[in-house]
Amino acid sequence: MLSQKKRVLIVDDEEDLTWTLSKKLSRDSDQFELICVNSGREAIEVLNQLPIHLVITDVRMPEVSGLDLLVQIKKHYPSTKVVIMTGYGSSEMRREATERGCFHYIEKPFDLNEMRELILDAIRDRQGFRGNVSDFQLSDIIQLNCLGGLTSALQVKTEAEEGWIYFLEGNVVHAETEVLEGENAFYYIMSWQGGEFSVYRNRKPPRQTIAQGWQSLLLESLRRVDEQSHLVKQEVEQKKQFRVLKLQQIFEPILSDNVEHLLIHSFSGFTIFYQGRFRENADQISELGHQLSHLLEQMTADKLSFADDFLKIAEIHYRNRVLFVARISREDTYLTIVGRKGVNLRAIRQHLKENLSEILALL
User: Fold this and answer.
1) What CATH number labels 1-136?
2) What band does 232 get if pLDDT is binned at 50, 70 and 90?
3) How many CB atoms neighbour CB 227 within 10 A?
4) Is the predicted pLDDT of residue 115 greater than 80, yes or no?
5) The domain 255-362 belongs to what CATH superfamily?
6) Rounded CA gap, 81 and 55, in Å?
7) CA 36/CA 292 separation, integer angstroms
8) Residue 152 pLDDT more than 50?
């Protein structure tokens, strides 16, 4: 038994259904308090007066639909869990939605024990229950319009663009942006990252430009988003490889047998670029960066100033090694060269001055 009973609100315009649930679930009154209402408007009144842990709502209701109710819950009661009751849509799409999004679906007609277990899972906060509406996606809103068989218009806004998706009796029939329409507009809108949306009920589409089923549209849009994400990662990796190659070309003239290590790194020792005899061993490079970080800390503690006003260069000679350290930007980015005695520091200094602007552009 819970120390404090939690409230469960069931919303459905079918009075027979809410009456049956109220009677059948009364045996669990020691675990949760059940409230049943027959309209979205009544549900909002209850939510405004009492803390509700779980809302179970039908999608297709007059005046205030399940989607309208969901939007209100997200805005005012983000910690309230939500279950959608629906008799629409394919099981494949509901499974996809549940895996990706924040709603739990239960299909009508449902078994009473299934409903009871779902409620108990929710109020006990069992791991894996999906009911929080604090982070639902554009795809969730589209699903709810379609599952509810609604005729409506969905307006989506970003800082720079605006798009519309139109529904006719639960089917996506038209989409448009400033320069696109039809399926291309739909997929483009679905690729937007962030933004705001508004739903306008009973607003009919100006024309029909989409004939494909909404489940196929959503699955294709999700596939395209995943593909685009993969392409972005590829592009980032290609740019990284290009920067590394350019830096290698820049430093090649000063890489002699007397240069053991050349690093560009942060004050904390994070290595941005490396050339030297540790090239094939990431652990050794990381350890070298860590040691250089300690050295910079010691230099700062000893107030060892960098001699050159332009590049902030310091040179340290010890035993048969030479350490050349240059602070190359105001963001605490350093170029460090570890070499044997005989390394041409004058040539290194001059080469660095001549190529500094290009080096910084590549970082």
Assistant:
1) 3.40.50.2300
2) low
3) 10
4) yes
5) Dynein light chain 2a, cytoplasmic (3.30.450.30)
6) 6
7) 67
8) yes
